[in-house]
Design goal:
By secondary structure, the chain is an alpha/beta fold. It has five helices and six strands. Helix 1 runs parallel beside helix 3. The longest helix is centred in the middle third of the chain and has 16 residues. The relative contact order is 0.22.
Length: 174
């Protein structure tokens, strides 16, 4: 890896109130090179937790402007992490069918995520983090997606990394 290659750190999360039910997704995009943090979130009226987890990853990759940057996506979703690091290869080889020949659930979202991942010119790494365990940016992503699922207004940050930690601590959101 080039020493001066840009790196983007991402934390994603998804939530569903009822499964299916109202849902939300969240992204925390961090570029230490650019000293920048941007948060995003969205809502779906009738969805599942797995769909929201996938939407968060899709939205994250879609929002990264520097397509040459290396990206590390942190997620507490075993579904997303295993899907992107293991299962997807056989799904594609088997015509988007599982090992027991059933259609892959959410294959439209999986296909979109696969295309975004492969079209990104930098390396995309997938990292599993433990949910609800004090991982600070994962906790923030959880606050965002649950606020969207609950239709509660939440301020999203867009500014310098150096200001972000103080901004969060003032809101007691970590």
């Amino acid at each position: 890896m080039l020493k001066n290659k840009k790196q983007v750190i991402v934390y994603t999360d998804g939530s569903s109130r009822g499964n299916p039910g109202r849902g939300g997704w969240a992204v925390v995009l961090i570029s230490r090179d650019a000293n920048k943090v941007v948060e995003y979130g969205g809502y779906a009226a009738m969805t599942t937790n797995n769909k929201m987890e996938l939407m968060a990853a899709i939205e994250a990759l879609g929002k990264i402007k520097d397509k040459n940057a290396d990206v590390t996506i942190h997620s507490d979703s075993t579904y997303v992490i295993n899907g992107m690091t293991s299962w997807i290869f056989n799904w594609e080889k088997n015509g988007w069918r599982t090992s027991d020949k059933k259609p892959v659930l959410n294959n439209d979202l999986w296909k979109k995520l696969a295309i975004l991942t492969r079209s990104h010119k930098g390396k995309v790494n997938w990292v599993k983090v433990k949910g609800h365990a004090g991982v600070e940016f994962n906790e923030r992503a959880d606050k965002i997606c649950t606020a969207f699922a609950d239709k509660i207004k939440i301020d999203l940050f867009d500014g310098e990394y150096d200001e972000y930690i103080g901004w969060l601590s003032l809101r007691s959101l970590l």
